[in-house]
Every structure is written in C-alpha cells, then in structure tokens.
Write a structure and sequence with these properties.
four-stranded parallel β-sheet; about 20% strand; 8 helices; alpha/beta; six-stranded mixed β-sheet; Hypothetical Protein Tm841, Chain: A,domain 3
C-alpha cells in the first residue's frame, strides 16, 4: 500500500497523468468535523498506509493548521509529516501530484517526505494577469522606467523558482526551465492563448494539461482575471532518478532515512559532519598511530 498523501483541499488533487498515480486523501475541514472525528480520520490513514504526508498551502487558515498539529500531537505519532507549501495554488497541486507519483515507488517515508522541498525548486509556477497592480505575494521588481505594475495591460508573473514580472506583450520573456516539462494551466476569465502559445513555445514544453482553476487562486493572485500555470517534470522515472541521486542519511532523532537538511516527519535538522560524535576509540587509535605527534 503506497504511503498516504493527504491534502487540505480537493483543488490540490489534479487528474493523474498516468494510470499508475495514486490519488490523495482530502482531509475534512475543521468547520465540518469535530476533533474526535479528525483524530479517527488520520488514525485510519495511518492504519491503512503506515505513514501520512500532509501537504498544505502556507495560506491555509490558522485554525486548520492548528488542528493538524493538534491531531499529530494527540496521536503522539512521528509517522505524520506536515509540510507547508509556499507555491501558488496550482503549483502546490502539481507538487502534490508529483508526490503521489513517487508514493508508488520504493522510497522510504523519510525520503519521500523530504523530497517535497527538492521537487518544489523545479516547479515553475506563475500566472498571466490582467493587471499586476494589486499583486502582493510575489516579491518582484518593477520593470525599469515604469513606476506602476502595468495597471492597463496584461502581465506575466513567475512566483518561483525565481520571482519575475514582465509585460505579456513585451520583449522580455519569463525565465523558464532548462529541462523537459509539461505545462499544467488553469484558464480563468482571461483567454489562455498567451499561455498555450507564446509561453509554451518559449519554454519548449512537451505537453499541455488544462485543469479547473483552484478556488484559492483568485485570492492568492489578488484578481479573478488570470490564467494560472505551472511547468514541471511529468515523467516519474526522471523524478525517481532525481530523488534517488540525493545523499541519504539517517535522522539522528527519529531514525528515518532522509535527504536534504531536515527530517520531514520530526523536523530535526541534519547534524553537520563536524559536529557528529566520532566512533568510540577513534581518537585513541589516532593518538597511538605511528608518527602521531
């Protein structure tokens, strides 16, 4: 049984791009569920899957996040990873889909959970906006010679990996991925021709996947006049290779195998090599070695 991938909204569960991708469990919101039932819901996930990785946007309401941490604390379980995502709504949904793909592979829970931070760096998430005048979530610099964010014309914004804002009809292109990707896009009230045409050509995407607009997108981008998009690696074999090539270590706190600098389940940081205790007798052997001063 694959490791459970859970989310806080049905909008984060995109259609799979292949027949082998498992679905994700949509947790019930606090306003529609009492605390004992929430405990039972996640406890059942752990019973069936062993481990649960919960991905939620950083914009998730505080009561919902507090509920997640309270459930984890009450269950006294290190088998629940709570992972916030700062990506825009569609970018987060694409990240969830990649984790769903990898959950069917042979990765350990610690490696799969820690891979979320790695994968997020390779998702190019942005939007075409009718106006960037009210944009406040993306720290972008305004184009030289213009004191406004083009209130009278469309602009294209990249939230990550590197924030960028350009005129949609200008000569400057959004910095795109230097590897093969598929472009998932959510048409809003704007026409999607710029995204499926000019942007797709500039980024040399290998496939286009239209999906419904996430409900949170209009709030995140501060406008209902947009087309949201996210370019990411669609091939699970490439994702598997990327994650498996990372150095793996054992978490010094919970013992799970992980990649990166922090355990996704207990949040313990990786101890630097210079601070790790040496094996018993190492110092003595060095002192007694021939030529030791």
């Amino acid at each position: 049984m694959p490791i459970a991938i859970a989310v806080t909204s049905a909008d984060l569960v995109l259609p799979p791009t292949d027949q082998h991708t498992p679905s994700a469990h949509v947790l019930t919101a606090p306003e529609r569920q009492d605390f004992p039932t929430a405990l039972a819901e996640i406890s059942e996930l752990l019973t069936r899957h062993g481990y649960a990785i919960v991905l939620y946007p950083t914009t998730t309401p505080r009561p919902y996040v507090q509920r997640l941490h309270a459930v984890r604390a009450m269950l006294e379980s290190d088998r629940i990873a709570l992972l916030p995502s700062a990506l825009p709504p569609l970018g987060t949904a694409v990240l969830v889909r990649q984790l769903r793909q990898l959950s069917a592979c042979d990765f350990s829970p610690g490696v799969l959970g820690a891979s979320a931070r790695l994968l997020a760096h390779y998702i190019y998430a942005g939007a075409l906006l009718a106006s960037g005048a009210r944009l406040h979530r993306v720290p972008v610099s305004l184009p030289a010679g213009n004191g406004t964010r083009h209130p009278g014309g469309q602009c294209a914004v990249l939230a990550g990996p590197t924030p960028q804002l350009v005129r949609a009809d200008g000569d400057v292109a959004l910095a795109g991925p230097q590897f093969s990707t598929a472009l998932t896009y959510a048409p809003g009230t704007l026409g999607s021709e710029w995204v499926t045409g000019r942007l797709a050509r500039q980024w040399q995407v290998q496939g286009l996947h239209p999906v419904p607009m996430p409900a949170e997108s209009t709030t995140w981008w501060a406008t209902a006049k947009l087309v949201e998009f996210a370019a990411a690696i669609p091939d699970v074999s490439l994702l598997y290779q990327m994650v498996s090539q990372m150095r793996q270590e054992a978490c010094h706190w919970c013992g799970l195998t992980l990649i990166g600098d922090r355990c996704a389940f207990c949040s313990a940081p990786v101890v630097p090599l210079e601070r790790r205790p040496r094996a018993i007798g190492t110092a003595r052997r060095r002192a007694l070695a021939p030529g030791a001063g």
